[in-house]
Design brief:
The chain is an alpha/beta fold. The chain has helices at 3-16, 23-29, 59-67, 81-90, 117-123, 190-205, 227-232, 239-261, 298-301, 327-335, 352-355, 412-426, 438-452; strands at 34-40, 69-71, 74-75, 127-133, 151-155, 178-179, 182-183, 210-215, 268-274, 305-308, 317-319, 323-324, 366-371, 374-379, 382-387, 391-396. It has 2 domains: 32-355, 3-Layer(aba) Sandwich (Alkaline Phosphatase, subunit A); 366-470, 2-Layer Sandwich (Arylsulfatase, C-terminal domain), CATH 3.30.1120.10. The protein is globular.
Length: 471
C-alpha cells in the first residue's frame, strides 16, 4: 500500500468512528493572529473613559479596553514623538542608535541597520501596512516602504492639517498625503480617512495574517475638527479636544466592527496607546500625573495602554507591573512565530507570559529615559530624575504619584544605586546623531527645573524665553 492510499484509508476509518478530519478547521484554529498597533498622538493619560475620564467620550476605545487588558504602569521610551516611535518600531531604546531627539529639518531618519517590526513580521509571512503619521525620516532610505511596510498611506513629517490644505498638499512636500510614495489628494477629515484606509486594507487581507500600524495624528495640534463634531460639543470646556477624540474613537469603532464582521476580531492582537504624554498645547490632561509631553515626570511618558486578544486573553483585567511600549515588538514577533530577535538584541519582552500569570516577575525591573540634558529611570516604584547642571530628584510613585516629595536625603542608598544604574545604561549608548533646537532645549530645561521645585512653569515655548542672551 502506498503512502497516499494509507492516508485515505486512515481518513475513512477515522470518519467511521466519528473523528473529524476537517483540515480547514485545523487551519483556522492554527492561524497566526493578526496584529494591529493603534497609536494616538499626544493623548493625555486621563483622557479616555477606561482611564477614568468623564468629560470626553470614548465608547469604542473603552469597549476595546473591556475586551482586553489595561496596563496601569505602562510607558513609552521617549517623551516626544519621533524618538518614541523609533523605540516602538524597533523594540530597542532609540538612544542606542542615536535617535534621542525629534528629527531635525535636514535629511536624517531612523537608523537603517535597525530591523523594524514591520520587516520582522514580513519575515514571518505577514502582510504589512502603515497608515498615518511617520516622523522617522523623509528621504527614500527612511521611507515606510523601505522599512518593511508593503503599504503606506499617510504623511512623513510630524504634523499637518486635518483637512486638505494648499500649504501642505503639494507633491514633494513632506507633509503631503501620499500612497506608497506617490502624491494623493484626499477629501474629508484625515482621522476618518486614515481609519477608512485601514478598513480597506483589512478587507483585502482578511484571509492572510496582517500587521497594521495605524498611526493617528490625532490629537496633536493643530486643533481641528469637523463642524458636526464641534457642534456635538458646543459649550464644552475642551471642545476641540473632545471633538477630535470623538472622531478618533469613531474611526477605531469602525475598524473593530470590520474585524468582527469578518470574524477575525477574536484572533487579532490589538495594542492601543499614546506616543507620549498629553501636550501642554492641546487641552489634554495627564492628571493625576505630574508633567506632560517633553519632560521626564510621569505625565511625559506614562501612557494609557491596552492589549486585546479575545481568543487568548481574558478581558476586563488590569496589569499593574512596569511595562513598556518596547514590549510590543517582542510580543508580536514571538506570536508570529519568531524566535528571539530578528536583528539586534531587543530591549522589550513578550508580555503574554506575564499577563497570563505564567511569569510572576515584572516585565521590567527598570526603565530608562534620556533626551538632551534630561534623564530619568524607574526601578519598581522608585523614580529618579536628573537634570544636567541642576541636580536630581528621587520619588516613590506608589506613595507620591504626583512626584512632589524629594526623598534623596532620606534614601541615599536608593538614590546612589539608581544614579549608578542610569550611568551604566548610558555607558552603552551612542552620542545623539542630532540634538534639539537650542531654544526648545532651554524651554525643556526651564520646565524641568520648575517642576522639580514644585512650582508652575512660566515657560512653555521659545516665545517665552529671553532670546537676547543667545545672541
Amino acid at each position: 500500500m502506498n503512502f497516499q492510499n494509507s492516508i485515505l484509508l486512515a481518513s475513512v476509518l477515522l470518519s467511521m468512528i466519528g473523528v473529524s478530519c476537517n483540515t480547514q478547521e485545523i487551519k483556522t484554529n492554527d492561524k497566526k493572529p493578526n496584529v494591529i498597533i493603534i497609536l494616538a498622538d499626544d493623548a493625555g493619560y486621563a483622557d479616555f473613559g477606561f482611564m477614568g475620564c468623564s468629560d470626553l467620550e470614548t465608547p469604542n476605545i473603552d469597549r476595546l479596553a473591556k475586551d482586553g487588558i489595561i496596563f496601569t504602569d505602562a510607558h513609552v521610551s521617549a517623551t516626544v514623538c519621533s524618538p518614541s516611535r523609533a523605540g516602538l518600531l524597533t523594540g530597542r531604546y532609540q538612544q542606542r542608535f542615536g535617535h534621542e531627539c525629534n528629527i531635525p529639518p535636514h535629511d536624517l531618519g531612523m537608523d537603517t541597520t535597525e530591523v523594524s517590526i514591520a520587516s520582522a513580521m514580513k519575515q514571518q509571512g505577514y502582510q504589512t501596512a502603515c497608515f498615518g503619521k511617520w516622523h522617522l525620516g523623509k528621504q527614500e532610505e527612511y521611507h515606510p516602504n523601505q522599512r518593511g511596510f508593503d503599504e503606506f498611506f499617510g504623511f512623513l513629517e510630524g504634523s499637518r492639517s486635518y483637512f486638505p490644505n494648499k500649504k501642505y498638499d503639494e507633491p514633494g512636500n513632506p507633509h503631503e498625503i501620499q500612497h506608497n510614495g506617490e502624491h494623493v489628494d484626499f477629501t474629508g477629515y484625515l482621522t476618518d480617512v486614515l481609519g477608512d484606509k485601514a478598513i480597506e486594507y483589512i478587507d483585502k487581507q482578511k484571509d492572510n495574517p496582517f500587521f497594521i500600524y495605524l498611526s493617528f495624528n490625532a490629537v496633536h495640534t493643530p486643533m481641528q475638527a469637523t463642524k458636526e463634531d464641534l457642534k456635538r460639543y458646543d459649550g464644552h470646556a475642551r471642545q476641540d479636544l473632545a471633538a477630535m477624540t470623538w472622531a478618533m474613537d469613531r474611526a477605531i469603532g469602525k475598524l473593530v466592527n470590520k474585524l468582527k464582521k469578518e470574524k477575525i476580531y477574536e484572533n487579532t492582537l490589538i495594542f492601543f496607546l499614546s506616543d507620549n504624554g498629553g501636550a501642554h498645547s492641546n487641552q489634554s490632561s495627564c492628571l493625576p500625573l505630574k508633567g506632560w509631553k517633553g519632560n521626564k515626570f510621569e505625565g511625559g511618558h506614562r501612557v494609557p495602554f491596552v492589549m486585546s486578544w479575545p481568543q487568548e486573553l481574558k478581558g476586563g483585567q488590569k496589569y499593574h507591573s512596569l511595562t513598556s511600549a518596547l514590549d510590543i515588538y517582542a510580543t508580536a514577533y514571538e506570536l508570529a512565530g519568531g524566535k528571539e530577535s530578528p536583528g539586534k538584541k531587543l530591549d522589550g519582552t513578550n508580555l503574554i507570559p506575564f499577563v497570563k500569570g505564567e511569569n510572576k516577575k515584572a516585565p521590567h525591573e527598570q526603565l530608562f529615559w534620556r533626551k538632551g540634558g534630561m534623564a530619568a529611570t524607574r526601578e519598581g516604584d522608585w523614580k529618579l530624575i536628573r537634570l544636567d547642571n541642576y541636580g536630581c530628584r528621587l520619588y516613590n510613585v506608589s506613595n507620591d504619584l504626583g512626584e512632589t516629595k524629594d526623598l534623596q536625603n532620606e534614601e541615599k542608598f536608593q538614590m546612589n544605586k539608581m544614579k549608578q544604574s542610569l550611568e551604566n545604561w548610558e555607558s552603552n549608548l551612542m552620542n545623539p546623531l542630532w540634538t534639539e533646537d537650542k531654544y526648545w532645549n532651554e524651554v525643556t530645561f526651564e520646565i524641568h527645573k520648575a517642576l522639580m521645585e514644585n512650582r508652575t512653569s512660566t515657560v512653555h515655548s521659545p516665545a517665552d524665553l529671553d532670546k537676547k542672551k543667545y545672541k
